[in-house]
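Write out the 3D structure for:
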Amino acid sequence: MREPVVSDLLRSKVERSGPAGERWLTELAGRVRECERAWDFTAEAALPGGSEAYVVRGRRGTGEEAVLKLAPPGGRFADELRTLTAARGRGYVAVLASDPDGGAALLEALGPSLDERAAASGQREAGRARWVIEVLCATLRRAWQPPPADAVPSADRKAAELLALIEQLWQELDRPCPERVVARARTYARRRAEAWDPGRAVVVHGDPHPGNALAVRTPRSGAEPGHVFVDPDGFVGDPAYDLGVVLRDGCGELALAPDPVGTVRSPCLGAAAATGVAADAVWEWAYTERVSTGLYLLALGEEEWGRGFLHTAELLSE
């Protein structure tokens, strides 16, 4: 294989991390060769994108396809690998070999993302959206893991993080949406924090959007919905939070809907029924995520994308 070529986005992120990041880039080719020798693996072609890690497809000596993932220092790869290893392929990509200290893992080769499959399905938008939500919910039910007893926080950290982010960015961006939108997100985040129940906590994925759900090549145990998740944040939280992430998207359809609230409420009820989670909790997380995501995208300079989230949040607050 040729020398590794990392994406511009990954290179930019790594270079900003200072000498450790520069060293990782310099030593990347050597790390690939080390993993090839250790795991009887031959790297063939880097996968496109890769904003958080260098990912390359190849084959093991048995002929089995696999994917090598090498993460730069300073990220959350340790949490990701811990979650994947504990799952043992249930709801998640299977780990074939790993080097936690070296930021490396050899993973099961997977097919296209749920996002890609939905786009190619030929279904109408509403039917496509229902199918995607059903698959994500079914996959989450397999992916959620009981947390270690000593790892359950005394409060919902995600609610506090989102509340702080919303308050900060709304002011820094010169209040880019009506105050009632932020007020409702504030109320929902506080309500989720107050409702924290350690007994219902699970290890959540954290970002279970359809681009992070990939098709398995062949049917297997733990992947009965036909897809498994990759790239988990892997923190202890409310399972309803993951469902809120699932339902925060679909801005284009929602903006055109004659009944925006009903358009979100229906899949919210369906997701809650499919997973045994309270529908109100899903609704509140989804709204809070919609607002925080819109503000975050604006802060990154993604004007049109961010405005779409904030506009639909405004429609849902009327």
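Residues 258 and 315 are 10 Å apart (CA to CA).
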